[in-house]
Amino acid sequence: MTDHVHSPTIVLNGEHHELLSASSALDLIAEVTGRELSPDGTPADGGRLGLALAVDGEVIRRGAWSDFTLADGHIVDIVTAVQGG
């Protein structure tokens, strides 16, 4: 019997998403946006990010993204802020 290495899989905005390694919420946001982020969650380029992150229905503060480790089965929603209403 062979052991299969199972990469953690989360549900990201309703779609299954395989994590390549143990990932923090900060790593996921950087991957999704294609932007380098500082440990406090702000873009390294000094621009605005305009995103909110919720895991299993709970909003995770931007400053906590780097310390929040995503695990197999987490349901993650990344929401883009839009102007107007």
Automatic annotation (TrEMBL):
<protein>
    <submittedName>
        <fullName>Sulfur carrier protein</fullName>
    </submittedName>
</protein>
<dbReference type="InterPro" id="IPR012675">
    <property type="entry name" value="Beta-grasp_dom_sf"/>
</dbReference>
<dbReference type="Pfam" id="PF02597">
    <property type="entry name" value="ThiS"/>
</dbReference>
<dbReference type="InterPro" id="IPR003749">
    <property type="entry name" value="ThiS/MoaD-like"/>
</dbReference>
<dbReference type="InterPro" id="IPR010035">
    <property type="entry name" value="Thi_S"/>
</dbReference>
<dbReference type="InterPro" id="IPR016155">
    <property type="entry name" value="Mopterin_synth/thiamin_S_b"/>
</dbReference>
